[in-house]
Amino acid sequence: MKSRKHLYICSRHFEEKCIVQGKKCHLVHGSIPTKFLPVALHSNAVKPRKEPSFREPPVVPERVRYLDFEDFRKTTALNRESLHAVIKAHCDWGETWLVDDADVSLLQLPNYQFLWKGASASSHGGVALYIKNNIQYSIMPTSIDSSLWEGIFVEIKMTSLHKDIIIGSVYRPPHNMSEDRMNFIEEFSQTLQLFHHNNTDLYIAGDYNFDLLKISHNTSTLHYFTSITSSGLDPLITLPTRITDNSHTLIDNIFTNSPQSTSLSGILTTQISDHQLCFTSLPIKTNKQTHNKYITITHRPHNIDELMLLDLQNIDIYSRLNTDPHTDPTENCHTL
């Protein structure tokens, strides 16, 4: 204990030779306690770290995934109405290599309008759109005539859509000069501002030649992505779209201001090009009302399963399909 003038400690912690006896005992100078010292109540040894438990690899989100054409066909059959807007309404095509006076007769498709703009920023440029004949559309005017990128924008009005939409096809050649990249970002942002006053959903697809996989360590790519998102657009594609033996990059994308309105987005794998095909689909309104029809069966044959299988085998489905190569491919889908 401690008083105002003195400090008292317990003598039982010291050897006898450390204590000078007298009327008031005191310690030999330099003595240290060695007896009845407290003992540690637990070990300080580091316990071995537990082995990490096995974790399944992350699942690719359903809204963004790779599909081959067979998977896409099956998905179309299961979600025919949801995919109507992307399959039957429009398709964009970038890097057409077309010039302004090109003969595009060979590129015409039955039942579709072919809208295109010749290459101006690069001899490998050019953009185009296919629009279904029965769809009302208008080409959007843009005030920017750039030597850095090319684009065509169309407003589509469909009663089956929940609201009007603007679709665009964009191509930016792979100019890697920092000044060219920054000028494109500025020009493209100005173009997006032109559409903000419209109460429409935007879907801008194209080859931008900015690799979003490098967003964390490339300043211009980060600036590009920040500019896009600041304009209220989000990317629908988050996986590599151009895959070679030596690299994989995310340079093709579809940007929209209404990602919640899409029912499915993804990448179609194909050997046609090293650029994979990006797609998105929009839900449509339908006026069809289904009425359940109940049938009462009073007698059920014991071999009903065999009879049903026999009926299916006797249906000559191929005779009902249109084999004309120029026909609309969705016609057979409806037949099926």
Compose a concise summary of this entry.
The protein has 336 residues and is an alpha+beta fold.
SSE layout and pairing:
Elements: E1 19-20, E2 26-27, E3 64-67, H1 69-78, H2 84-89, E4 90-94, E5 112-117, E6 127-132, E7 136-139, E8 150-157, E9 165-171, H3 178-193, E10 201-207, H4 219-230, E11 234-235, E12 242-243, E13 248-249, E14 252-256, E15 264-268, E16 277-281, H5 304-314, H6 329-335
Parallel strand pairs: 3-15, 9-10
Antiparallel strand pairs: 1-2, 4-6, 5-6, 7-8, 8-9, 10-14, 11-14, 12-13, 15-16
Order of helices and strands: EEEHHEEEEEEHEHEEEEEEHH
Q: Low-confidence spans: pLDDT under 50, at least 5 residues?
A: 60-65, 78-90
How would you name the CATH homologous superfamily of the largest domain? Endonuclease/exonuclease/phosphatase
Q: What is the level 1 CATH name of the largest domain?
A: Alpha Beta
Would you count the extended β strands for me? 16
The pLDDT mean sits at 78
Shape: elongated
CATH level 3 topology of the largest domain:
Deoxyribonuclease I, Chain A
Q: Can you tell me the number of structural domains? A: 2
Please tell me how large the radius of gyration is: 36 Å
CATH architecture grouping of the largest domain? 4-Layer Sandwich
User: Between the first and last Cα atoms, what is the distance in angstroms?
Assistant: 97 Å
Q: Could you estimate the helical fraction of the residues in percent?
A: 10-25%
- Tally of individual helices: 6
